[in-house]
Amino acid sequence: MTEAKLRRQRRSMALIPLLLLTVILQIVSLGDFMDLNRPDFPVLILIYFAASTGSKLSLELSWITGIIIDLLYGAPLGINALILTAQVYLVISQFANFRVYTIWQQALITGIINLIVNVICFWLAHMMGQSAYDINFLVPALLMAALWFPVRICLDMLIGKKAAEDGSDEDAP
Amino acid sequence: MTTAERGKNYLIHIRFAVIAVICVALMAVDVRSKALSDFRYYLETALYPILAFADSPHKITKIVSNHLKSNNELMEENERLSAENYMQRADILRLKSLESENEAMRKLLNSPMHRTSKRLFAEVVDVGSDIYQRRVVINRGSGSGVYVGMPVISDTGLVGQVISVNYAFSRVLLLSDPNSSIPVVNARNNIRAIANGDGSADELLISNVPRSSDFKAGDKLLTSGLGGVFPEGYPVATVTSVGFSESQPFAFIKAKPMVDTARMRYVLLLWYQRSDYEDPDDKVLARERTDGKVILRQKRIKALIDSMSREQAHLNSASLPEDLPPQVRAQIIEGMNHDGKTSSEAGGPR
What we know:
The complex is a heterodimer. By secondary structure, chain A is mainly alpha-helical. Chain A is built from 8 helices and no strands. In chain A, helix 4 packs antiparallel against helix 5 and helix 5 runs antiparallel to helix 6. Chain A starts with a helix and ends with a helix. By secondary structure, chain B is α+β, with helices and mostly antiparallel strands. Chain B has a domain of 55 residues. Chain B is 42% helix and 21% strand. A 6-stranded antiparallel beta barrel of chain B has the order 1-2-5-4-3-12. Chain B has a 6-stranded antiparallel barrel with strand order 6-7-8-11-10-9. In chain B, strand 10 and strand 11 form a beta hairpin. The radius of gyration of chain B is 35 Å and the shape is elongated. Chain B starts with a helix and ends with a helix. Chains A and B meet through helix 1, helix 2, helix 4, helix 5 and helix 6 of A and helix 1, helix 2 and helix 3 of B.
């Protein structure tokens, strides 16, 4: 088995438990403030793997993760799946060189995309009668941007920066 | 950009377009029809361990805090609970006598009896929910006999109703959810209204109440029992503000729910018999008239008709030919009498 294959295996093995952890973080009670302004934790992991390591099935994986969150929330099936997939799609389609940006640029993009997608999905939810009027879009987006720093640093350390770079060279989106 | 890269980008757009279409179609089907309810039932039941795991930090905190309580604290709590229990048992004695008195009164008035036969204690699973909805998850499902539409209360008032059921857990639509409407009655003056959730946890809107209605801040709102979903008489909210505007035909009334849905930990599920459901054994029939004057009048009319028919038969027998044999004559008179009776019964007073 080549070294590149081993690295890829290591990446996939890290992705599933990390996604499970973020799904649990998405439903666990984190206090009044965080419950109201909860950032999309799985999106951070999915964006990292999609953009930095060039995961081939990132959109499909985002969709499945979103469906699981819908089922756990009791939300209309597909709404969180669309929120997650749209964010990953925008990063990999509009920012082809995302992995070479500086960390603060990546954080800014993550925050802005989260804001845009959540506003669109809020309109969609309203059209279907799932209305809520005190949703704050700005704070979750800011939290997403702020969380990108620790997530990026931790994941770089966990799976190795080299592995990420190798992966992105092998199979870019 | 090379041709291969352009091709890859093109593929990403197609993949996303397919996923977006699937998502929108799923949302529409899930919200507008029940086609996916079985699919959801099994998948959500299978995902219950994740919900239970997400609730574990709260459970662990509770266990640890219970273990760390000192002996003095436990004794104080025990004393307080014993006193509370004693007072409540005394109240229950009075409640039983009031219930039987109410039952007797209702029987006298021929009103249907209100029954809440069975109750079930449930614990709120402390997990975050969709920000678009005000719902909580409880640890009882169809395995415990929970059904959709079941009223849910707590020790302080009405919580809401069960909106979806799985084998191991259920979701409760809180009264503060924008989709929730509860028929209420003002405890002070029995004015009926509808309490709607507006999405915020500590506010309800009382809609379509005319400006002239007598609503004041501090009024208690109870369930009215109309609609047949919620039992009558459970506290729902307290009116906090009443506003009027010359340009609006209705008053702008806000109320604060009795239950703090963000803090509640335990709830009670009620098996409430809907008011439109009629048990054949409990069917209430209209009472028979016992007015003496009416009966006497009916008897007098009946007697008058009988005597008139007899007189008519006598006159008919007198008009019969003289040469008829006595047996045939008797048969004809009997037949005439019978006809007279039948006609009096058919045309008698109802």
